[in-house]
Amino acid sequence: MKVETRAFGLIDVDERQKITVPKGLFGFESFTEYVILDAENPPFFWLQATAARDIAFILIDPFLFRPDYELDINDSVLAEIGITEPGHALIFCVVTIPGNGTPVTANLQGPLVINKETKIGCQAILADQRWKTKHDIMAELAAGKK
């Protein structure tokens, strides 16, 4: 399939990279079809809306910089996307890269949870007070190496 992106222009994307987020992401509820693309700089990925070239998010696996990350998601939320076992889920967090030189952060409070088999996902909201919408990725990587 072909997808128009702001970062790469018009590209060919394998259907296996397509995911559906039936309720959309918070603030972007009308966009439900996305593709996951490798970013130029690992360990990041792009979550690109298929219907709008300007709707794209940078993602990261939160366990890379927070191995202690825990998700307490209501079973009914997971059931909506067909997840019955933790091993069936892919977990990503949305990254913010500010243009003013402040730290690159990840939203650990609102992870994107994707069923590996069906490619259906949702954005969960975690009630655990440890997880905020802005975690400094580099500072937490450095703290984890101590």
Sum this structure up briefly.
The protein is mostly beta strands and 146 residues long.
Task: Give the topology.
Blueprint: E1 2-5, E2 9-12, E3 18-20, E4 33-38, E5 45-49, E6 56-60, H1 75-80, E7 89-96, E8 105-106, E9 112-115, E10 121-123, E11 135-136, H2 137-144
Antiparallel strand pairs: 1-2, 3-4, 4-5, 5-6, 6-7, 7-8, 7-9, 8-11, 9-10
Describe this structure in words.
The strands form 2 sheets. Strands 3, 4, 5, 6, 7, 8, 9, 10 and 11 form a 9-stranded antiparallel β-sheet that branches. The longest helix is centred in the C-terminal third of the chain and has 8 residues, at 137-144. It is globular and about 40 Å long. It has helices spanning 75-80, 137-144; strands at residues 2-5, 9-12, 18-20, 33-38, 45-49, 56-60, 89-96, 105-106, 112-115, 121-123, 135-136. With 146 residues, it is mostly beta strands. The chain has a single domain (2-144), classed as BH3618-like (Roll), CATH 2.30.290.10. The protein contains 2 helices and 11 strands, in the order ββββββαβββββα. A hairpin with a 3-residue loop joins strand 1 (2-5) and strand 2.
